[in-house]
UniProtKB/TrEMBL annotation:
PANTHER family reported for this sequence: COLLECTRIN
Biological process annotations from GO: positive regulation of amino acid transport
Membrane topology qualifier: Single-pass type I membrane protein
Record organism: Pogonophryne albipinna
Protein name: Collectrin-like domain-containing protein
Keyword Glycoprotein: yes
Amino acid sequence: MEDVVFLLLCVSSAAAAQLCAPDASNGYKVRLSILTALGDEAYVWNDSEMFLFRAALAFAMRTADGQNYNVSNVLVCDETPRVSFWFVVTSPLNPTLLVERRQVEEAVRKSRNRINSAFMLTDNTLEFLGIPPTLAAPVPPSSPPG
Ligand SMILES: *[C@@H]1O[C@H](CO)[C@@H](O)[C@H](O)[C@H]1NC(C)=O
Ligand SMILES: *[C@@H]1O[C@H](CO)[C@@H](O)[C@H](O)[C@H]1NC(C)=O
């Protein structure tokens, strides 16, 4: 544990990307099933989509704790083509420090619907492994009954 703290303190901002690693204690794995969700309408995951993900997470973090998170505060690593990746969030006040997992989890839960809708996906096709989906209230029928 002390080793981890020591390591974080030693990391320069130039090496910030190394803060993100698979199984990082403050990281989360995300798995997308774009083809399953959208079939013929599926879009190709690329750098622009990843930018949107990072922006959505920065938005979620801002909404949750009021600090000015930027896209640069969301670091992504270990991306696989089918599509999965890990991410960590760094503090806007000190980019060498990681935001705690539970804070990230709270932010993701609060903005879950906004994040899902940015990618036209659902809790089942945009999975944050280790963050169970919130039991959102069912969407009310679009036309009033009767
Ligand atoms: C990403 O894919 C979209 C289509 O899904 C395309 O319009 C866009 O130009 C691509 N962006 C990059 C950076 O490849
Ligand atoms: C976020 O990025 C903008 C533009 O690069 C910058 O002006 C602003 O200071 C950044 N905010 C923080 C909290 O780092």
